[in-house]
Amino acid sequence: MTGQSGRHGTALLTGSFDKALYYASALHRTLQRAGLTVCPFPVSLLAASLVIEEGRSEPEAIAALLLNISMPTLEEILVMEVSNLFGKDTATILRNCLQSNYRNSSARYAVSNRRLLAAQLPGSLAVALADCVARAAALHVGMMNEAPPERSNHRGELEHFDLLTDAFEDLYPGALVKRLSLLVAEMTAISSPYVGSQH
């Protein structure tokens, strides 16, 4: 039995979410030990917490928790295992997010075409948006730790996040996309080669 909720309600979490936390943490460590480059685990925790904050369902929160841990060569195996452990709803959300091209900065059509993006992410928009916010927040922290000249190297990533912001403002308006918009604006501002060059 998984917790249920709706947008802006209170997410009802059960023991399934506790199990997912342990599963995600263990999977993350396994991938690291294998020498694979994986997204920092706090990014996954942030994505899940944003979904919970939105009042979304437990399957969506679990999918957000696992989304950044998946590796391309393991996607289908992970989805099948998630289906067995956490149910088909979670597995479907995870599959939709993994198979869509919204995270691929070279596949701009997938973001600029709102209808296509919505079709790729049915019922998964909140999870995808939370994932974007969490990854943008991680990038922001990284840029703040860089010297000003190095920050301009992220121009391509920022352009992609800007496209994602425009898309989600249409598809999933609200506080979450406003947070993404603020992060992108701040990163764009500090990426200017003139920032930090004046005394």
3D structure, described in words:
The chain is an all-alpha fold and 199 residues long. The protein has two domains: 1-99; 108-199. The protein contains eleven helices and no strands. It has helices spanning 15-33, 41-53, 58-67, 75-86, 88-99, 109-112, 114-120, 125-144, 148-151, 155-171, 175-190.
Count of the separate structural domains: 2
Shape: globular
Give the end-to-end Cα distance, rounded to a whole number of Å: 59 Å
Q: What radius of gyration results from the CA coordinates?
A: 17 Å
Number of helices: 11
Instruction: Quote the beta fraction.
Output: under 5%
Structural class assignment: mainly alpha
**Into which percent range does the helicity of residues fall?**
55-70%
Number of strands: 0
For the report, how would you describe the main beta sheet? none
On the 0-100 scale, what is the average pLDDT? 85
Q: List SSEs in N-to-C order.
A: HHHHHHHHHHH
Q: Low-confidence spans: pLDDT under 50, at least 5 residues? A: none
